[in-house]
Fold:
Amino acid sequence: MPIIHIDNKPYEVKEGKNLLEACLSLGLNLPYFCWHPALGAVGACRQCAVKVFKDEDDKKGKIIMSCMEPVKDQLRLSIDDTDARNFREHVIGWLMTNHPHDCAVCDEGGSCHLQDMTVMTGHSYRDYHFTKRTYNNQYLGPFLNHEMNRCIQCYRCVRFYKDFAGGKDLDVFAAHNHVYFGRQEEGTLESEFSGNLAEICPTGVFTDKTLKQHYTRKWDLTSAASVCQGCGLGCNIIAGERYGAVRQITNRFNGAVNGYFLCDRGRYGYEFVNSGQRIKTPMVHHGPADKANGIPVLQHVHQRMKPGKTIGIGSPRASLESNAVLKELVGEENFYLGVSAADHDLVSLSLKILQQGPVRSASLQEAAAADVVLILGEDVTNTAPMLALSVRQAVRRIPVEEVINHIHMPAWQDAAVREAVQDSKGPLYILNVQETKLDELAKGAYHTAPDNIARIGFGVSHLLSSKMPEVKGMSEQGKAIAAEIAAVLKTAKNPLIIAGYGGGSEAIIKAAANVAWSLRDLGIDAMLTYTVPECNSVGLEMLGGHRLDSAVDRALNSEVDTVIVLENDLYRRLNQHRAEQFFEKVKDVILLDHLYNPTAEKATIILPAGTFAESDGTLVNNEGRAQRFFQVFAPDSAVQESWRWLLQIASINGHATLSGLQHFDEVVSHLAHAYEKFESIDHLAPHADFRIAGQKVPREPHRFSGRTAMQANVDVSEPRPPQDTDTALSFTMEGYRGEPPSSMIPFFWSPGWNSVQSVNKFQVETGGPLHDGNSGKRLIEPHGNGQTPFYTEVPEPFLPLKEHLLLVPLYHIFGSEELSVHTPGIAERIPAPYIMLHSEDAKRLQVTAGYLLHFTDNGHHYTLPVIINDTLQEGVAGIPVGLPGMQISEAPQLIKV
Amino acid sequence: MEKPLTQHIPASGAPLHLKEYEAVGGYAALRKVLQELTPAEVTGRVKDANLKGRGGAGFSTGMKWSFVPAEVTGPRYLICNADEMEPGTFKDRWLLEGNPHQLLEGMIISAYAIQATQGFVFMRWAYKEAARIMNQAIADAYAAGYLGKNILGKNYSLEMQLHTGVGRYMCGEETALLNSLEGKRAIPRAKPPFPQVSGLFGKPTIVNNVETLSYIPHIISKGGDWFKSLSYTADGGTKIYGVSGKVNKPGAWELPMGVTMRELLEEHAGGMKAGFRFRGALPGGASTDFLTDAHLDVKMDFAGVAAAGSRLGTGTMVILDDRTCPVGFVHNLEHFFAQESCGFCTPCREGLPWTEKILYALEQGQGTYADLEQLEMHTKLLGPGNTFCALAPGAMEPLQSALKYFREDFEQHIKEKKCPYADHTH
Amino acid sequence: MLSAIEIEQITHEMQQVPVKKAACIEALKIVQGQRRWVSDESVADIAAILEMSTAEVDSVATFYNLIFRRPVGRHVILLCDSISCYVMGYTEIKQQLMELLQIKYGQTTPDERFTLLPNACLGTCDHAPAMMIDNDLYRDLTTASLSQILDQYL
Structure:
């Protein structure tokens, strides 16, 4: 490793880095703006100036930008040099000539990189006495506020939005000191990743608009490490609360999962926690439980539970702990997976392939490092948004690696590398029912019906390995596509095959497995990513239970008196007819949930369950990675974790194995002992008795204010703060002020680094893993030995049928997920329900765009306006899934119109 | 005295047409190159002549060519930088309008030397006449077989295109020019990688100035020794010099490299206009340091001007006379540079408008001594290496030297709270 | 909507360059040549034909001095305000032009005949002061010569 001398002290540093990264990785403070570990260096802001010296005798030296200079053995540099310090201070001085100094009214204040860097350079006096330049701001939609006067022109926003995330509607306009960063005209930012601008922007130009609705300074937030509930990827988040409301979601760096970024559903979908539809008190027959016969609510529950006649329905959006406790409470034979038949089929199949097959599931980080990507039947931007960002990085990586050798530049030289790369892209192939946003990056993007996608997938695997089944009667075009893809995959080193729930097709999932397995057979280190619909879909499937359909059948056979529904709306799992039948036959419904929903209307007893923000728990993401989320705040109501309600029920019932369990750690240990596959979840984070220097880890920064005043309108004496007996976190500002274990970092803060940029201080090296590793534990590993398995059932080709349409599910990042739609900004962006037709089908049906089409699917009558999209295959129609008020229809169905 | 570049340009300034150019030996060098010389030999000859770039930076042309990596396949580009936009500079216009084929022949030979597949003339928008002439010349050269497939029946092909800009001083900076030619914003690129390695569309690219490329046919025909012999000094060749301002005969002339400022001013420009006294000059365009009457005997070559504390730059002098306010003069320059900053790096984007505002305040009689310190500081802080490209350091050259040579004028503005040259205030 | 001529010319330019985007500046010039300026709508149209985003085209269009993103008059006067013209007294020419036309920099006469703009060095410093009207260069300007020059433009 090279040695560099910084202010005459030798340091061992990593080769291939730039000097800024090297300095920051060593823990030295060096200010910067335009550089970002995920975006690389462009040398625009000139803030990270240092002096370099030719040799020991060179006293004069020369100022250079540390972000643009590679590490070199025996290089001598000075951060402390007077000229360098003076220059850095003046860079701030220049930036401040037009900055409005409106920190007091700026949402960024207190978590502002510009503030931090200003203090770091020592700039404190303004010499500029001329008029400041001013700009008009733009309306950018429900997620971001725009205040251009604060802009310091670091170019990070366009570099993230456009270059990194592929956004089209944000750019830099004009020139000299009039440069303007915004849209071509006012309007909602289109990118699904726009919210990252609030973190990428080093000052208050782009700020979180949802935070603005209930603004709180970062230092006044009570925060905890959490995991996003928005999809199955399990991105790491920090949730911040004040006065009982979640105020903001920010990124929690996890190098193996989401890195520095989040999607907009994940960032903004939190407001269901604050919803007016929250269930806050126990209810019996829709009245407050405490007025129901004067019996405690748990007594009501106890009275309605009969062994053998009580069943439990779990939930893919509830924690592993809550599901496991319910399963144990009602008994294995009475525990049902609260997922639709289609979701269950798809997720259980995916899980089986990953558990029993020889190919490893990819983390988001590994996905971003794939050299060939094949997507089968999945619009990942809408079903697993951050995976789309990983695919973007993968597609970019190959040409970057090619050019850096040729132009002798490190990959972090962003502008130079982009120039050399031009438009060349690594191989990406997409087969989907209709066009997707990633198509623009693809070497080939083909649109056809799910069965045809599966057939091409099978065709590819057959070309890779003759063991795999042959596809009979493949069209010439299908053959050509399969041949093209197979040829590219054959040359790959670590290709990634993506499929999942979005295609709604088991055949596609099997085809993806066959492709990955046949590659493995060729000795190629292939990876598989299956998307899953919800944050704990995999955890629930791993826990295991019976199909929801069989619960309905049992009820219809009058074998069920009472059903305990865990965090679930069965109307999203069953079609309306079946759900109604089920609820008619069941005597009592005990619901544990946090939002009032159609299932709640059928409930005899409702127990107020905590959301992720009021709970501790474990989720397993689509990779099979178990991750811990921590309670953010203690609710001031009867709300508590579902597992805690269930333990209390177990206790009152005198349950044999669950009685006596009380604390979170006990539940986790119990679970880890009960299931070998969950053994490692006991080690996801330190236990409740963990202390650093005898102290807990505080959820509040030491500058937290108003503690004695916050409750003054209720009680002038300061109430005792809530106690956390479940984890090593405290609900106050008291506790250890140093760095907590990575898995439980409640907020990123370091002396002098108040903004999110302080994550540098928590990493082994800039951009690298957190100090004690990327958190989470993989529960699934490939089954390496033995024969390569394969699927043999190739579906018949889909051919348009007269009088019929094949209805396929289409997912929307905003709208298809149950909880995030409670955020007003997200609700604004939900598409209106529709049925999507090919223009030829529309012609045949004598309809045009906007016409209302009537049809029946599974006994449910639909009336939907037509939209036309000719990327659909003829005979295929798409309808959006999961939109509020829409019936659920996940699997492709033939319908008669 | 030989004037290889301009001797055949008619006095009227009308263009030398293809036949006329051929009649005076035009395209003979190209014939020779294609028949007798390997690309490396061409580069070698240019290196031997030690031709230094005439665009302003003065880097060895042959050396620049030799950095093009031999092993890289695919397209390569040769670009003529005809985006002459340095205030006070009008030398390339003469060559573009007067002898377009000389430039084209130089470009074809240079392109051959680096084995370029495509040539571009990047011309500034304002040179409408030059653009018309160049388009005609390119068409004529195609028709005569000097461009296109298998030039003169040999195994070398080259396409040539004229691109006219849409106005930005930055386009004259070679890497910003490349971005502009790619249809992008003309912001500069970091070096390394140099354009020779990763230039236009990420391919190996050479960018040379009009005057530099126009010299190539002559160096090929007559050799390095001849080239060196043209000059008064070690920097070989002739140079196109120009003078503008309050002189009797402003204009441009091709003269041996190394003539003195005095000769230029007094002999060629006919001396100062009656009633005007010489106070100083920017020797090579707006981004060079002032020289004063103490420097009139400085030899106008790269080393000579550098030794005097300035740069030869483009070799076109702008004269400051005694009735023009030096503060107003510098304000005009800084206004230009602030406007033409691309907005990419902080010191240039924010520092230049600041200096411009201070200079304006001084001109309005609202300046203070603290302002002078602020200006001094900017001249130090906007130095080479501190900014992304050379625009801001260039902008600081006339300012720092004005503060040095004309300090009493600045102070007078502060003391008298007005511009002492009232008739030139604007 | 782009006219047939504009589409034809832009298509031609696209064929000259290795990537469509590279024809962006040419496309802006072509549209401006036809319409005198480039409207928001034209920016979007150019973006569509070059397969770029509207924002990206506008980013380029707004960078350059001589792409007009607001309407201009039938004739655009570009008065050189750089150093040689400063020394040779362009300010008087400016005053005179403003008086004759009764407009300031950046403005267009009410009859849409002229737009007056300052411009950086025109490269004809030995004949300062200078200006361009449309494609025509005028050098060695005097205040007396201006109205006669302007009269040629209707």
